[in-house]
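Hey, sorry to bother you again with one of my protein questions. A protein chain has come my way and I'm curious about its shape. I'm sending you its amino acid sequence along with the backbone structure tokens. I owe you a coffee for this, so here goes:
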Amino acid sequence: MLVLVGSISHFVVILHSKAGKVLFINVYLVIGMKKIVILAMGMILGGTALAQEELETTISGDIVSNYIWRGQDLGDVSLQPNLGLAYKGMSLTAWGNVGLTDPTDTKELDLTLGYTIGGLNISVTDYWFNVGLDPDCRYFKYDTHGTNHLFEANIGYDFGFASLQCFTNFAGNDGINKDGDRAYSSYIETKVPFRLATLDWTATAGAVPYATTTYGTRGFAVTNLTLRATKTIKVTNTFSIPVFGQLTGNPCSQKAYLVLGFTLHP
């Protein structure tokens, strides 16, 4: 059940269990500006056991030599933790970033509520950055003209051989267009996975359709051309480390980046 009411205040995940049986899952996501609240969802399982394999959790963390996002340089060496919960196509994810070598690098906390059915996926993300309209960097400040939060809607489809994703900012600390108005900044991206020489590769192309200060564009612009290769290194019979290298070019800003990283997970 998805209900729109009130104003944003907090995000909570509550799991109620008894004798090893999950009875309720209540997920509250408050993600609006001043008078927008999304209260998502009260799922009552009515005393029946939730099969262990149906409720999936994700815990991982990336270490990267450079934080590059959609062709933009957001920091040097960074730690990027990830915590996720998924059930029957519904997912709830927390993702963060903190610089390890430069204290002025971007600090970020993103909360995403998503749903996938077949190849179709939809989601809403609440981005929070330590820079924005609030000089005190308060997380629970959601004033329309004084927040560091940015809210984005996403819809996409995975065709198997390729995927297409569309993102649009709809509230929060968005950029402005040429007229000085809210830009409703958008980004369109396609990815093509393939395997070559024992490595898993992904080719990515991303573009911004119109002018916005969020991506530093003055009109339609290609902002992200990325080629990424991943190799999983086996450490023991029960532990392995995915290592990846990534070459990114941003034709709009005329900049290029080479990134090395690895992922840690249980």
